[in-house]
Design goal:
The protein has seven helices and six strands, in the order αβαβββαααβααβ. The protein has 193 residues and is mainly alpha-helical. Helix 3 packs across helix 4. The longest helix has 34 residues.
């Protein structure tokens, strides 16, 4: 649990740092949409900013090279050795060998980190489907795994599978949310005049 909190705290500065740029970009984008006969609600903009901030935080933990403190201050750590797993479901064997902490972080963490992708892609865009949410989750995960090849991070087929499962579960969470609060879902989507 401590590692989950640590990752969240490590994501926060990136997310907050991106917020001013996101607000300016979204304000300019909203003005452009109005000229085309579309409007966006504050609920849509809030949900979109939360989603974009999450993506920035996710990139900070997965795609950006890790920093280490050296004698001269922080230094970027580039890949030292290629850690590549192309054997599906190896995570289960690794979890048994490494213990419950590894299982929680690697298995549940990979699923949990992609719940927002499945949820927000369905929430924010009108013609949502489970296929679009799962495909988006798969493609985002694939890009992350490919970007991790030159970094001092592991590239793992199980991460791709678990991230995609997380996007699917995120869509199912959206589906439940839509059943319970359908008017809230409609207010979070962009509409035409």
């Amino acid at each position: 649990m401590d590692q989950i909190i640590t990752h969240g705290l490590e994501m926060a500065p990136y997310m907050l740092g991106a917020l001013p740029a996101l607000l300016i970009f979204r304000w300019l984008r909203a003005r452009g949409l109005q000229k085309r006969g579309l409007y966006t609600s504050w609920r849509h903009e809030l949900a979109l900013c939360v989603f974009l901030m999450f993506l920035v935080g996710l990139a900070s933990q997965t795609v950006l090279p890790p920093f280490q403190m050296g004698e001269d201050g922080p230094a970027i750590v580039w890949g030292r050795s290629l850690r590549l797993n192309l054997v599906p479901f190896r995570i289960f064997a690794d979890s048994i060998a490494s213990g419950m902490d590894y299982f929680i972080i690697n298995f549940l963490g990979n699923i949990g980190m992609f719940l927002p992708i499945g949820f927000f892609t369905a929430l924010l865009w009108a013609r949502s489907s489970v296929l679009k949410s799962v495909t988006t989750g798969f493609l985002v995960s694939l890009v992350i795994e490919l970007c991790q090849l030159p970094l001092d991070r592991g590239t793992d087929i199980d991460d791709l599978l678990l991230n995609t499962l997380g996007a699917l579960l995120g869509y199912l969470l959206f589906w439940l949310f839509q059943k319970l609060w359908p008017s809230c879902v409609e207010k979070c989507r962009m509409q035409s005049f």
